[in-house]
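ok trying again, last paste got cut off:
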Amino acid sequence: MSNWHLGREAHTDDAPRQRAHDANRYRRMRNVSIVGLVANGFLGGGKLLMGWVAQSQSLMADGIHSLADALTDVAVIVTARFSNQGADAEHPYGHARIETAATAGLGVVLIVTGLGIIVDAAGRLMDPSLLLRPTALALTGALMSILVNEALYQYTRWVGIQIKSSLLLANAWHHRTDALSSVVVLIGVGGVLMGWEALDAIAAVAVSMMIIHVGWQQLKGAFVELVDTALPPDRLDEITRVIESIDGVSHPHRLRTRRMGDHALIDVHVAVSPRISVSEGHQLAELVQAKLKTVLDEVSDVIVHIDPEGQESVWLDLPDRNEVVEQLNRIFAKELGEGSALDASSVTLHYLDGQIDVELIWKETIDIDPNQMSKVLEVARAAEAALAHIRTIQVSFVSNERGHGSQGSDKVLN
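nice, full thing came through this time. structure:
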């Protein structure tokens, strides 16, 4: 089976395949998030309770972090339901940007949470009488948090990579920062137990800085996508290589890319031979689309603009098809009689190098008289001389009985 057949099947099966992909993606995002929601809910509540009982500000801050993660898991479940819906009339590119916007929202939540904890811890550091003095019970809560959150990080990240979900990957880092922040809590509580009373509040500030950093990274990444930042240079190079590997297509240019969730969208101009038919140009454009989607998994939409090879300019001042056919008809009718009007479907125009090359099929219902052929060619040459915007006219003589080959004017087509 040729590459085109493979591409054609991939193209025609796009809609049902995309629906199945979206449904599977939503199901996996939902399942991961439910696991995270349950785990973070128990962890958050447990750390807050143990932090209060053990008098550890850093462990309570860590508990707030876990509850924030639980809220993000709820947001992921809700967002995944809508972001994986297919395209519709109001959203022709789908709903993937909902996931991006939610990622930005989660980043803001983390930043605000971190700032709040810093303000509280700073107040206690400035007034030593407000410092909490945790007991050894806080160590148990920190150790439990490290183990559970690292497991959640590994599981969520694994699924996020498989389904290419920036939202799941962002949520995985929530779990990792929770694990790391619990390490800081462990150090802070241990320091207090060894006599450094301010270390628990300092640990709370350190945890908050980590929370803010992760929130900023998520917010920045989402913003980059929302402003339609192009794909990385190595992916652009790969797109160019794929296009240049297709026979009949060359010089990919004006390449524009952007990302929507786990999808990549491509707009590109390609050059083809200037004298191929419209249908062949369309065929090549479809082949470019199909091959890009087949080779690059994340590509979901490709728009291909066909340019004639070697033609870098456009000439909008040249007459359109109807005007050219009307001009030719007047000349041919004047020289050959009113019955010699051209069939517009037998005229092909090539807009090249600032002029128009005309291909004309001259049809007769009986065998073509050589004298008539010569007369037609003379009129064609006269039309070339009379119409400055026409460079050449090539005439093919065809009979209903049999073809007589192709004859052209004495000007040579370039």
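cool. The beta strands are 250-260, 263-272, 299-308, 347-352, 355-364, 390-399, 403-408. The radius of gyration is 35 Å.
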